[in-house]
Amino acid sequence: MTRARVNPEVSRRALLATMATASMAAVSIAPGLSSTAVIAQPATAADPLPSWTDGAAKRAIVDFVRTTTDTAHPSYVPPAERIATFDQDGTLWVEQPLYTQVVYCLERVPAVVKAKPELAKLEPFRTVLSGDRAAMAKLSLPDLHKILAATLTGMSVDDFKAEATRWMEMARHPRWNRPYTDLAYQPMLEVLKYLRDNGYKTFIVTGGGQDFVRTYAERLYGIPPEQVVGTAGGTKFGYDKAGKPFLTREPRILLNDNNAGKVEGIQLMIGRRPVVAFGNSTGDREMLEYTKAGGGARLSLIVLHDDAGREYAYGPAKGLPDSKVGTFPQTLLDAATRQGWVVISMKDDWRRVFAFD
């Protein structure tokens, strides 16, 4: 199958706005993890975070866990309240040059056109099929929501999961030529394990599709489906010709889990304010603010992508290149400083980025 070439200049805000406009943002890609899927390596008793350099960020995490789990310490947090939330794209795995689920949607266009040949002569499908990057860069939001509607809805949940699984088994990131599941950040996998080992319950809170992430989160991150909060669309219950019940994906939105929607999603799906939260972009600001504003011990952390050699460098904070994917402006960095968030420098705080480094 010829794959459509994708446009790396699509912003998360634009995509989520498109999904909201189209009322269909629950992207349930079911990635079948490859045999090379990243697995969090066990940390030694002496060093629970071996992929981190010995700096302020690592000390903040270790000290926070130590004090909040010490019953004799004033910062002690009871086990039931130990909630840690993590953004996914750009926080737990690579988000450049384009979000994985968006790559899936664009690459699904040829299969959709094969099933409905009349679409081949219509825009925006004709442009996507052409592989013309310049033309694709000019696609409007209405164009994008037509693509999303065609590739994400109108099929059963099971059929969608099966198709997405096949795609994920074949898909490779253009830079590393590795499965997307190989591109989880090893330092963050260690943090997830370290928190769970100390009685924390870890949640993914993502602007991406809830069903998309739920299909692989447990195997990749150790986070079960019920602990994934994401942008969610509707489904409709029905019966097939044999009387077997099934769910169909529908073009209606239930939760836009980005920006303030992340906080709303946390209340709706978790019901407790996080004690710890990790993010990396403007879409995570409200979640980090909400976490830090709670009483008692609180820790908000934000990842700064400043390592073009091992991963990517983008901001535009600190004079880094601007990016519509995972935008981190100077105003966000200023907010982090003002509100006492820990800024994690990928270049300075991580000894390695991936398990294969």
Order of helices and strands: HHEHHHHHHHEHHEEHEHEHEH
Overall mean pLDDT stands at 87
Please, how many domains?
Answer: 2
CATH architecture of the largest domain: 3-Layer(aba) Sandwich
The name of the CATH superfamily of the largest domain reads HAD superfamily/HAD-like
Q: What is the alpha-carbon Rg in Å?
A: 20 Å
Keywords for this entry:
alpha/beta, 15 helices, single chain, seven-stranded mixed sheet, 36% helix, Rossmann fold, 7 strands, 357 residues
Report a brief summary of the structure.
This protein is of the alpha/beta class and 357 residues long. It is 36% helix and 14% strand.
Detailed description of the structure:
The protein is α/β, with parallel strands linked by helices. It folds into two domains: 12-28 and 99-170, no CATH class; 56-98 and 179-349, 3-Layer(aba) Sandwich (Rossmann fold). It has 15 helices and seven strands. A seven-stranded mixed sheet has the order 4-3-2-1-5-6-7, sandwiched between helices. Strand 5 (276-279), helix 13 and strand 6 form a beta-alpha-beta unit. The longest helix is centred in the middle third of the chain and has 14 residues, at 157-170. The two termini are 31 Å apart.
Layout of helices and strands:
Blueprint lengths: L11 H11 L33 H13 L14 E4 L13 H8 L1 H7 L9 H6 L2 H4 L4 H12 L4 H14 L15 H12 L3 E9 H5 L2 H5 L6 E12 L5 E11 L4 H10 L6 E4 L5 H8 L6 E6 L25 H10 L2 E4 H4 L8
Parallel strand pairs: 1-2, 1-5, 2-3, 5-6, 6-7
Antiparallel strand pairs: 3-4
